[in-house]
Known about the structure:
By secondary structure, the protein is of the alpha/beta class.
Amino acid sequence: MQNLRILIVEDEMIIALDMQEMLEEVGYTVCGIAADYEEALSLVKEKTPDLLLLDIGIRSPRSGIDVARVLRIKGIPFIFTTSHAEPTTIENAKDTRPYGYLIKPFTKIDLYAAIEIAMSHFQKTDDPSLFLPMGRNKHHVSLKDLVFIKANGNYVELQIGARKVALRKNLKEFESKLPGGHPFLRVHKSYLVNRAHIHSFNQLELKLKDGTGIPIGRTYFADIKSNLLIV
């Protein structure tokens, strides 16, 4: 799959340049190299890459896994690269559902194969949807109609237009079932909100287009700003 624009996130410049050389030799375009979380997200906005090669252990306050969580929301595929294969590292990485996992050092053929397989599995739909249990049947629901999801004990409450639906799942479990490229932002430990339904926000609260107020958790505000286009 030629003409792919690839962004490298790697804090060891020698390794990053070696990866760039391998990528260019097999026909890909490297659209940037980032060394930390902030630079990675800035280049994602500026360069609009097709794929990221993402070092898990970048030396910054936020790891490659934090970058991956943002990429999942944006619907951009990524492959983890790492020198570590410990079970805890792999388990943490799995939660972000990467499109590949490469252990350093790897060869040009390893890199090429991982990218081609990742892109063959990446499917971005214009109207992602879910089938939700309602009564005895499972009903089709377009994600664009799902306004927000709220945790409520052992249940989640889904606001679908003017209708509320309760499911016996916790919020993390529900979030893990969402397809890549989904439009939801985690804005609070108890809320996922559809970006398309946000009217305005400040540090404490989101206002939705229907007038609903949603609280913003203090630890989520930076992620909200990085995932919304702010002029």
